[in-house]
Q: What sequence folds into this?
């Protein structure tokens, strides 16, 4: 039997990288949708859900609560990305010593240098919690690498896309080494991928 009454915390990055467009949405729009999906599934399976939104400061901090899906939506719906770097250490220490939880960190892995503070801060959470870092996979990058080039410009674009994908892969490897699982999915499938990671953690009794 899958245990109930577990805590789930969605940690939503609202820093500068989350303003980047992905289709008709920003990256922040897409991760808010994913956090909402996880929160309502937590309601359905009898867990408590909360949310922490942050950039250089904490914007929202809602502790896990039973039937917390609606409260999570209300905490997130009006958030906008800001032009500052994200302080992961601040966010993770704000979560502090709450009981063991499933912590879903919704952020972006696009820039390898910008991801270093995230990698360095993950052990703060991983020592106590089941941590998943979720990010949006850009379909345009995969398309640029996979399609046959028709011009020198296409070759250049494919090379840049390949560099970005390789950098993301290196960041994902570092995060796993630091103690987090990593989820990447296109915007339309990110919510389902995060829900799958959450339910898989419950099934493995990691919560």
A:
């Amino acid at each position: 039997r899958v245990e109930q009454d577990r805590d789930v915390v969605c940690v939503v990055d609202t820093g500068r990288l989350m303003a980047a467009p992905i289709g008709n949405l920003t990256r922040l729009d897409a991760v808010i949708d994913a956090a909402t999906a996880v929160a309502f599934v937590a309601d359905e399976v009898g867990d408590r859900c909360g949310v922490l939104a942050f950039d250089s400061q904490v914007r929202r901090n809602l502790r896990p609560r039973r039937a917390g899906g609606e409260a999570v939506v209300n905490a997130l719906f009006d958030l906008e990305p800001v032009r500052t770097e994200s302080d992961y250490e601040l966010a993770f220490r704000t979560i502090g010593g709450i009981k063991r939880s499933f912590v879903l960190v919704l952020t972006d892995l696009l820039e390898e240098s910008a991801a270093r503070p995230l990698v360095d801060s993950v052990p703060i959470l991983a020592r106590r919690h089941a941590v998943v870092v979720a990010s949006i996979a850009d379909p345009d990058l995969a398309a640029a690498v996979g399609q046959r080039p028709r011009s020198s410009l296409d070759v250049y674009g494919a090379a840049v896309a390949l560099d970005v994908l390789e950098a993301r892969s290196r960041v994902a490897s570092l995060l796993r080494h630091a103690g987090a699982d990593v989820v990447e999915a296109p915007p339309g499938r990110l919510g389902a991928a995060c829900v799958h990671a959450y339910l898989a953690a419950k099934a493995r009794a990691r919560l």
About this structure: The chain has seven helices and eight strands. The radius of gyration is 17 Å.
